[in-house]
Heme haloperoxidase family profile domain-containing protein (Zasmidium cellare ATCC 36951), 453 residues
Amino acid sequence: MKSLTVFLAALQSAAAFPAVMESLSKRQSNTCTTSAKCNEQYEVTDADIGYNPNAPTAAQIASAGRNHCGNLVPCTLFSAAEQYVSTSGANAFQSPKSTDLRGPCPGLNAAANHGYLARNGVQSLAQTITGLGQAYGMSVDLAGILGAYAIAFDGDLVSMTWSIGGPQAKLGAIDSGQGISWSHNKYEGDTSISRCDAYINNGDAHSLSPTRFAYAYYEGLEDDRLDMDKFARAFAKNTHRSIGQNPYYFAPLFSTTLVSPAAYNFVIAMMSNHTADQPGGYLNEDMFKTFFAVTGDYPNYEWHPGQDRIPDNWYRRPSAQPYTATTGVFGDLLSEFAAYPDSFRFGGNTDGVNTYTGINIRDFSSGLYNAQNLFEGDNFACFVYQNIQQGLPDVLNANPLVTAAVTLLQKQFGIAFSAISCPAISEFNNNNLPPYPGRSYSPNPPSNAPQNC
Ligand code: HEM
Ligand SMILES: *[C@@H]1O[C@H](CO)[C@@H](O)[C@H](O)[C@H]1NC(C)=O
């Protein structure tokens, strides 16, 4: 896939950015064994990400003012009957069988464990859309894009299905898709909430690290509440941590630049509990642990693989105010990147050159976008949309089955992005990508090395 790469490789480019030098100086071998120890070893401070609680910037104040449902479509409605998510009967929790597939996404794992998605872990597009709407209030367009992308890049093109975990059983003579557990750099990216970067964990980016889980929850420890702003900070800090810890850190446009930070927002937007008093929702440690299959108390957590659940007596966001691709995902990414620019590192550089890599956005987009206008209006959404569209035929042209998958994905993108109008772009130029080592790193099953990191 042609994609914009945002990657820090050399000390030389880090020298332009003192905070990163700081992270690098903390870099040590990955030998920590307990949460408290790892988190001390890799501590990134508020100051490291440009946050002073006593003097937040205007963008940080705006970020902190966000509703749990997202800043562009805050939830204002509450109907207990409509928003209650059943965890009994057909939707009772069941641990996955040994043949059922589970992977790096707690939202999907929990939905499958409650029968909102197929319990065996293999999903069609229709199932994906219906199940995630029912369980979480994810919009049809967003579930449609995420599902179609999973089918096209990690799925089985014969049955047009995809796996929420590792590879599906082989169908006939053709290898089925790898599933999202093994989609490093395609779907799965570095800088996850609770999963280690693939490279520093022997390729395993789907198992939960209790250490990282504690690191994320730390932001909400004081008042037992997580919110959009706290998790935006957690992402910025984890970005420093990845850069400091992982020599193969790599941030392709879709996986690490879009999916990873969006997942932090997904926790708040789709795992919060909604009440008549707080139609916007709230999220505490209990719910966070339940969804992520974790027990214990900060900072000493234990992970129970495959046991991700939807809490009992839990109310999702209203169907009438769903989390969408444009207003939801991009709306929140823009707030987050504006408040904590380190999470999308164009370093405040106004000429379009990424401070870290020397990559020039302007060159990628034939002059259309630059670092100044990338986050204005719909530009970032357009940039991503156009970049992915341009890349599609390239990725898939070797396989005769791909036409259907490409068509499906194009259609889903078209639906989701129909509300925004993007300027015409002549071509994306990805020919000058520097040869970063993380770009070609591609772990394969069955490596399984849950570790604290
Ligand atoms: C078709 C829909 C979806 C797809 C294809 C999908 C895919 C993924 C993938 C590939 C990852 C790994 C990304 C990484 O490396 O960090 C991930 C992580 C995550 N997803 Fe999903 N996801 C979907 C829906 C959801 C929903 C509905 C929720 C919330 C209710 C959710 C919450 C999360 C969270 C919280 C993570 C981060 C996990 C961690 O780092 O510990 N996802 N998802
Ligand atoms: C969610 O909120 C409702 C009130 O609307 C409350 O009764 C319930 O206990 C809460 N659920 C969880 C999981 O905290």
Remarks:
- The first strand starts at residue 5 and ends at 6.
- Residues 5-440 form a domain with the Chloroperoxidase fold (CATH 1.10.489.10).
